[in-house]
Amino acid sequence: MPGARPTTHAAVRTSAASIADLFSTQRINLEHSWRRCIDRYGLDPSAHQHLSSLSRSELREHSEPLDEVLVLAREELDYVYAPLADASFGVSIANMTGLILSYRSPQDEGYVSTEREGTLWAEGVTGTNGVGTCVLERRPTQVFQKEHFFRDFSFLSCAAAPLLSADAEMIGVLNFTSGNPALREDTFRLVSGLAIKTAERLSNQLFARRFQSRTILKARLGEDATLLIAVDDDQNILGANQAARLWMNWRDGAVKAQSMWSVFEVERPGERLQSGPLLLQREGGTLAFEVRVADAPRFVPAPAVSRDRQIAKPAPRDATHTPSVADCLGSDPRLARSLRVLTKVSGSKLPILLLGETGAGKDTMARAIHAEGSRKDRPFVAFNCAAVPETLIDSELFGYGAGAFTGARREGNAGRLVEADGGVLFLDEIGDMPLILQTRLLRVLESGEVSPLGAGKTRHIDVQVIAATNHDLRQRVAGGTFREDLFHRLAGVVIDVLPLRERSDMREVVDAMIARVGSERDLRLTDGAMAALLAHSWPGNMRELKFVLQRAVQICDDDLITSEDLLLHSGLSGGTPTAIAPPSFAADRPSTAREAVASAERELIEESLARHRGEIDAAAAALNISRATLYRKLRQHGLRARDFTR
């Protein structure tokens, strides 16, 4: 059991470094994972992978232990889902076997079928990946495209972070995944930071729910983490989240009740704790806590200290406002002509080509054009030409008939072109479309007719096409990778979407974005924060700005965003990953999802029993299941708790 003990200055520095490592976005060394895949699991990176799934009833059994997490996650992820969807990211939650229990993604882009519920991503089965490697490393894990062990998964980018119980035991994985092969690494880093902070918030919500009837002390340790400590009416410590445990040099597991005044170097006060700020001292420094007693409605924030003195003008409040074409173009005079042209052609059959850097807002612009045009009551169908494997673009875009090929849906697939009939088809990343499919697309645009694969009939469609790319299509035409006739067919109206660093209306853009991401909060920016935003180069453009402000909204105090809250130049450093013994998958590797999950589950139970020396209560708590469930699973796997008591 953990216990309090005096700490030296060196120990405090070590704890602070550990916390920085815990919440760092620095990429872990994946060489260890690749070595495990080759030497221990005997995997071949060139082998083709097929992921089978559990049935709904089987998945339900594995989901029950994390029901509370899944419910909380839905509420929390509603807050960050919009910017994730804008960046073509889906989000999944997996248990400690690497089994995907929940997956949510925009169906039009970024959808990754391999992430569907019921698929298993244990490292011993699917090689180096965000979920499975995070389970073993027990820390945030980012796997970018070709860093995945198997080539079949090299189009994926995964940012995974541990989910922790109230006792700081890892109980699952939060994973943000994109299937966009054109994803930029700077955008991926931003998403990785958001994954870590979201997982931390979810874990802290589990802690707060567990101790909701107790007094909770809360503190921020620099920019790295939130410390939570739960105490009873006699001021005995009952629980601490992982950041607090690291700060106090405590191990994971249930906390042995002890007086908080044996931990902090201060005389015990003569009266009960009251809601509000409280300064507590340990060797190595003083920390400001916020106290929330059980009958108080919310945390009362301690006074914020900032180096930024003057407060900028409050951002306009209209969180429900959907950006219009005028909003997207802004007040930069160079874009006034574009606004005039788009106002006249929106809703016509004239195609529109949007050119601009990744993250500049082309998708938002396309949706605004549709919303303001004469086709606004008809479908808006988006298709990302870079996010879908080349072998699937044909069937997904043009459709197919029933039984057209092995694995096809029984009822066939209408295809995105037919789905957009009467409305707008948005072809994002058109510059990445394969040449052979460019020929088919040109034929459809010229004739207005589409022939789904194996359907045997032609259908006439009426669509306005809006295409977008971050490539220089003229250079691609000159290089022979893009058809010149298709370029001219798409370029009815060409709009250059300016990169954020070149816009003269940057202040207005920031104010509008604050209103979008801040919901109903009365958010304000300090002058220092605004200056930092104006000075940044914004390689990720509007997408990066949204993530930066979304993150700042989550961590700022008193609805006041300072330059420190922006984390534009965060110096957090990572450390050496904790050595975790990899599971010993059997030589005869499982061939089905059911067998693979059973194998991974057995290893997880064995690891928990070994760590807790065969104590059923402790092992069940660590696994987030009841004693009865653990006994039942022991029988299923032929295990005995007493074999782990040595």
Automatic annotation (TrEMBL):
Region listing for Disordered, in residue ranges: 305-324
PANTHER family in UniProt: TRANSCRIPTIONAL REGULATORY PROTEIN (PTHR32071)
Annotated organism of origin: Terrihabitans rhizophilus
Keywords tagged on the record: ATP-binding, DNA-binding, Nucleotide-binding, Transcription, Transcription regulation, Two-component regulatory system
Biased composition annotated in UniProt, kind: Basic and acidic residues: 306-320
Source superkingdom: Bacteria
Span of domain Sigma-54 factor interaction: 328-554
Listed InterPro entries: AAA+_ATPase, AAA_lid_NorR, GAF, GAF-like_dom_sf, Homeodomain-like_sf, HTH_Fis, P-loop_NTPase, Sigma_54_int
One Pfam family, short name: GAF
Official protein name in the record: Sigma-54-dependent Fis family transcriptional regulator
